[in-house]
Amino acid sequence: MPRPKLKPTDENRKMVRMMAACGIGQEQIAARIGIRSPKTLRKHYREEIDRGATDANTLVGQALYRMATSGEHPAATIFWLKSRAGWKENRGFEPGAIQPAPFIVASERGGV
Length: 112
Hints:
This protein has helices at residues 10-21, 26-32, 38-70, 74-84. The chain has 112 residues and is mainly alpha-helical. The longest helix has 33 residues, at 38-70. It starts with 9 loop residues before the first helix and ends in a 28-residue tail after the last helix.
């Protein structure tokens, strides 16, 4: 006897999208909504799986952008510039980083 045909609900679609956005694996998502196979999950929820992570990254990116451009969160600004604009730390002067010249003693005979 064949299994009943799967009919995705709006509630399940929302749950799959949110779980995918959080990085939960397809096997765990399938088990949570009562599907035995990740292949079946992909067949019926392809768009939710594909869009979940993209939607989440977009929202987090928007929040980070607002924080970085507000001037109220310098760490967000620094992170943005390093990760998106290619900025990096300037090494500058570090005590002890420059080795002094070797100590040379000259003899009275003019040799070293």
